[in-house]
């Protein structure tokens, strides 16, 4: 879903089911609008959601998340993005949980979510699960989000070394997701440095993007198989749309064991 008639950023979004024949449980949405009827400030909202649950239930959950969050953000006046994220995450989680309770074939369904809201050139993010948000500036890349997984918690507690995570059996055990019986808090930490404290990361919200910056949102189908260095190298070597395709193609060449979704937003070089 892309609704971007008034976008002030370059936008590309692509999704692929992967190479295993698995049903595509990823969904994404990108919408562009103005702040409100009294303020023509341009706004872009992007969201990526990766479904959890079999029998197409994950696909249903991720579609619900994308639609509900997009509607809530578009209906807001942009005055308090973090409050909007919190309210919309709660509403989406309750809706998904209720839908799962009402249909036995959807029991246990849920979804990860990663979203970025750019008001003018100011960035806000929120997320839950292991879909990621990156900032690319020139030849540098920074993961702005933190995974909500068993493995990430173990790394932060010092009980697991990063070098041992690739084939860890708990790699995809997700600790926070939309549709859980207790609605999740949106993670509002925005990490500009690996050593940012949680408090500093939250204060980084409302980050001013530079002309040429690229914000990338993706599902774990990409990051399981393509590393950060490769992502930024592919983005550097080709236009935005071709870069997204190249990332997906590389993940598929390496097995494409999961759905792969990439959304990229770029502030023009001449943005003022």
Describe the structure.
This protein has 7 helices and 12 strands. The protein has 272 residues and is an alpha+beta fold. The protein has one domain: PPM-type phosphatase domain (Phosphatase 2c, domain 1), CATH 3.60.40. Strand 8 and strand 9 form a beta hairpin. The longest helix has 22 residues. The radius of gyration is 17 Å and the shape is globular.
Rg computed from alpha carbons, rounded to a whole number of angstroms: 17 Å
What is the CATH class designation?
Alpha Beta
| Low-pLDDT residue spans | none
User: What fold name stands as the CATH topology?
Assistant: Phosphatase 2c, domain 1
Write the element-wise H/E pattern from the N-terminal end onward.
EEEEHHEEEEEHHEEHHHE
Main beta sheet: 7 strands, mixed
The CATH homologous superfamily is called: PPM-type phosphatase domain
Give the termini distance in whole angstroms. 28 Å
* Strand runs, count: 12
By helix and strand content, what is the structural category? alpha+beta
Number of helices: 7
> Any idea what the CATH architecture is?
4-Layer Sandwich
Share of helix among residues?
25-40%
3D shape: globular
